[in-house]
């Protein structure tokens, strides 16, 4: 059971959260999670924390450092994990597996990324993370996500106009949700999500360059934003929640991970969705809301084409194109937003999936309680 879910607002690069150390940013959501949910931090038996660039200020097990910075008891351990963009979604999977297997009663899952302070790719500067055998296997491929997004657009026949229109709709949906106060209950702190561009237009998007391919279709406008943020979820069993007076939000119904071509890199949400639905015994039409991370606009559009999902149920409050993508935090951020949307609208089943570096994807189905 997920009994609590909170997040910071998502800050733009060099924006409102850039002055906050990522350990302190993590501590902020841990503190808010315990206060809002009502559990005693001393009862937390483990913390699973996602972070992609585990170097500099985000090194040396930032999960454990966050626990100490939050003032939680020294008895609370933590681990930091990297499944690329899905790191904190994976953290939720590990937390759920830990409590359902009886290894612990209360586990916190979440993640952080301060991309202003620890730039993307910092952990591999001047290094080759692949080695000769991978290079030989894949013919010295670029392993570049932007290039992969262009490959997806070409394979699924997605035009520049389609991508720009999708990007515009993400900003519009996020602005509408922000204006309606839909994010207020999930956000810690005083700033609001900073990435929403209310003044963007099709004309402005059409004027952007295509950095990944000279005659390409993917631009900065149809890609996720570089961002700062953190998010956290509290996971326990129904028995423990009941015994300690905690109110379950939803149950982790089914959780899977899948792999796909690491060169095109971003297509794994498609097989991951098929896998999670089959394991759950549900159809795509049973799901009331889909959150597919908007790493690049071709990703959710190709996913829609392959799954036959209802576009009206996809990322109803906007996605990473508008809100931003603080890598290690995004899985927990998206889950937090989806859970609050489900509770506010009475949706029974929600499905979250996100593409990940290396050609992987987590997929999670949660059920409202």
Automatic annotation (TrEMBL):
It comes from the Bacteria. Pfam families: Thiolase_C (PF02803), Thiolase_N (PF00108). The keyword rRNA processing does not apply. Residues 1-237 form the Thiolase N-terminal domain. Signal peptide: none annotated. Residues 247-367 form the Thiolase C-terminal domain. The keyword Cytoplasm does not apply. The active site is at 85 (acyl-thioester intermediate), 325 (proton acceptor), 355 (proton acceptor). GO terms for molecular function: acyltransferase activity, transferring groups other than amino-acyl groups. SUPFAM superfamilies: Thiolase-like. Keywords: Acyltransferase, Transferase. PANTHER family: ACETYL-COA C-ACYLTRANSFERASE, BLR7806 PROTEIN. Belongs to the thiolase-like superfamily. Thiolase family. This is Acetyl-CoA acyltransferase. It comes from Winogradskya consettensis. The gene is fadA_3.
């Amino acid at each position: 059971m997920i009994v609590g879910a909170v997040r910071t607002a998502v800050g733009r690069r060099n924006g409102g959260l850039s002055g906050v150390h990522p350990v302190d940013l993590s501590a902020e959501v841990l503190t808010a999670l315990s206060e809002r949910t009502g559990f005693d931090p001393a009862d937390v038996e483990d913390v699973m924390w996602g972070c992609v660039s585990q170097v500099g200020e985000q090194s040396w097990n930032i999960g454990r450092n966050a626990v100490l910075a939050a003032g939680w008891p020294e008895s609370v351990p933590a681990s930091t994990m990297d499944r690329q963009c899905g790191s904190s979604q994976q953290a939720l999977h590990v937390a759920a597996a830990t409590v359902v297997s009886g290894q612990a009663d209360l586990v916190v899952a979440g993640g952080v990324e301060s991309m202003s302070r620890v730039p993307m790719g910092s952990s591999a500067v001047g290094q080759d993370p692949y080695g000769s055998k991978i290079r030989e296997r894949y013919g010295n491929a670029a392993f570049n996500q932007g290039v992969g997004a262009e490959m997806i657009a070409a394979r699924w026949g997605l035009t520049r106009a389609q991508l720009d229109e999708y990007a515009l709709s993400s900003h519009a949906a996020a602005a509408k949700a922000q204006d309606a106060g839909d994010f207020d209950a999930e956000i810690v702190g005083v700033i609001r999500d900073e990435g929403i561009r209310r003044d963007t237009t099709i004309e402005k998007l059409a004027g952007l360059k295509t950095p990944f391919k000279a005659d390409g279709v993917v631009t900065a406008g149809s890609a996720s934003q570089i961002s700062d943020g953190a998010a956290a979820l509290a996971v326990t069993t129904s028995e423990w929640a009941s015994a300690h007076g905690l109110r379950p939000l939803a149950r982790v119904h089914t959780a899977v991970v899948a792999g796909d071509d690491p060169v095109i890199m971003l297509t794994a949400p498609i097989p991951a969705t098929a896998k999670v639905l089959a394991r759950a015994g549900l159809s795509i039409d049973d799901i009331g809301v889909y959150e597919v991370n908007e790493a690049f606009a071709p990703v959710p559009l190709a996913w829609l084409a392959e799954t036959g999902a209802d576009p009206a149920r996809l990322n109803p409050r906007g996605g990473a194109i508008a809100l931003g993508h603080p890598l290690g935090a995004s899985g927990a951020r998206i889950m937090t937003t989806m859970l609050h949307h489900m509770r506010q609208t009475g949706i029974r089943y929600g499905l979250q999936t996100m593409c990940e570096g290396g050609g992987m994807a987590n997929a999670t189905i949660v059920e409202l309680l």
